[in-house]
């Protein structure tokens, strides 16, 4: 478990410290909500916490992994643990009733009983109200762990009876590592990890032909706008406008454009930050030489302004023409 615990600590340092302190001070509560985006390690951390609570000889707030209880948690057949998943769209009242009856049976082993609700935000009303009664008056030593990506969708009366454990987004360095393990190139991994924090969504984007094309179009635009405003406008008419029809697509393309100019700022400042387009560094160096910080700041502002204009439903062709002229200004006087 050592290596696994280190991984979880790197992924969720604050959460792991919270849970280990709870265990260390013997302050285990009767209900927790683990709240965080997809891919933030909620299930793995829940498993760690369950093992820790049931382990026969934990050491330094880490489960031993070798006792009978640890092994049964690992293999998923410990009689004192129940897990509930939504049945179709919702977690239903019958599932909660079965759970409560299982938790109150005397046939279960001595010691703490634990139940885990996956997608707890999907409890329908009757199921939520039935669970609420059990949360208020659990029978014996019972701990509930509710996992959710939608904390606000859990009814307030349940939220107020649980300790809220907030999972932070994955550090970008770890996401980059995970993506490369999955065979995504460094340049594409660097770009998608700026667009999303979810490993699953990042992998989908990295393999999406349309996204690869969008990335190409944005980089082509950055290159041409430096050299020639007429060529840049041609790229807008021939590549940009036909490719990005939906508002969400234009929004994403403007974000990708913003990240390119942020890269140029980072290169100019000799910053050690992780770039969005590491494959373009040579080109960014050249751009950084021929533009001032003030111009770069104006260019970033111009892109943000275009994003606002998009929300105001400005004519898209006009919006892009204006943006090209403003981006070009940055290079004229250097």
Automatic annotation (TrEMBL):
Pfam families: DNA_pol3_delta2 (PF13177), DNApol3-delta_C (PF09115). One of its GO terms (cellular component) is DNA polymerase III complex. Keywords: DNA replication, DNA-directed DNA polymerase, Nucleotidyltransferase, Transferase. One of its GO terms (molecular function) is DNA-directed DNA polymerase activity. It is an enzyme of class 2 (transferase). Coiled coil: none annotated. GO terms for biological process: DNA-templated DNA replication. It catalyses: DNA(n) + a 2'-deoxyribonucleoside 5'-triphosphate = DNA(n+1) + diphosphate. Its EC number is 2.7.7.7. Residues 241-328 form the DNA polymerase III delta subunit C-terminal domain. NCBIfam families: holB, PRK08058.1. This is DNA polymerase III subunit delta'. It comes from Lysinibacillus composti.
């Amino acid at each position: 478990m050592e290596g696994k615990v280190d991984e979880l600590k790197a992924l969720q340092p604050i959460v792991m410290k919270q849970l280990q302190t709870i265990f260390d001070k013997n302050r285990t509560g009767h209900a927790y909500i683990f709240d965080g985006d997809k891919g933030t390690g909620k299930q793995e951390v829940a498993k760690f916490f369950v093992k820790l609570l049931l382990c026969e000889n934990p050491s330094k707030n880490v489960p031993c992994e070798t006792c009978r209880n640890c092994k049964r948690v690992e293999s998923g057949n410990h009689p004192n643990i129940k897990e509930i998943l939504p049945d179709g769209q919702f977690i239903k009242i019958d599932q909660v009733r079965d759970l409560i009856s299982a938790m109150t049976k005397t046939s279960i082993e001595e010691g703490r009983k634990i139940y885990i609700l996956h997608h707890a935000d999907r409890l329908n009303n009757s199921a939520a109200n039935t669970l609420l009664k059990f949360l208020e008056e659990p029978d014996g030593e019972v701990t509930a762990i509710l996992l959710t990506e939608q904390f606000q969708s859990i009814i307030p009366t349940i939220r107020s009876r649980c300790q809220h454990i907030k999972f932070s987004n994955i550090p970008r360095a770890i996401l980059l590592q995970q993506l490369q393990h999955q065979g995504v190139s460094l340049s594409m991994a660097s770009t998608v990890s700026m667009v999303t924090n979810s490993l699953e969504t990042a992998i989908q984007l990295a393999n999406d032909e349309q996204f690869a094309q969008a990335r190409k179009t944005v980089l082509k635009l950055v290159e041409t706008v430096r050299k020639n405003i007429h060529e840049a406008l041609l790229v807008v008419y021939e590549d940009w406008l036909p490719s990005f029809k939906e508002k969400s697509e234009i929004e994403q393309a403007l974000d990708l454009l913003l990240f390119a100019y942020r890269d140029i700022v980072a290169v100019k400042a000799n910053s050690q930050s992780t770039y969005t387009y590491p494959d373009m560094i040579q080109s960014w160096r050249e751009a950084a030489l021929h533009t001032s910080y003030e111009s770069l700041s104006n260019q970033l502002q111009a892109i943000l302004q275009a994003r606002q204009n998009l929300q105001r439903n400005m004519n898209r062709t006009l919006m892009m023409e204006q943006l090209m002229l403003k981006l070009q200004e940055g290079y004229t006087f250097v």
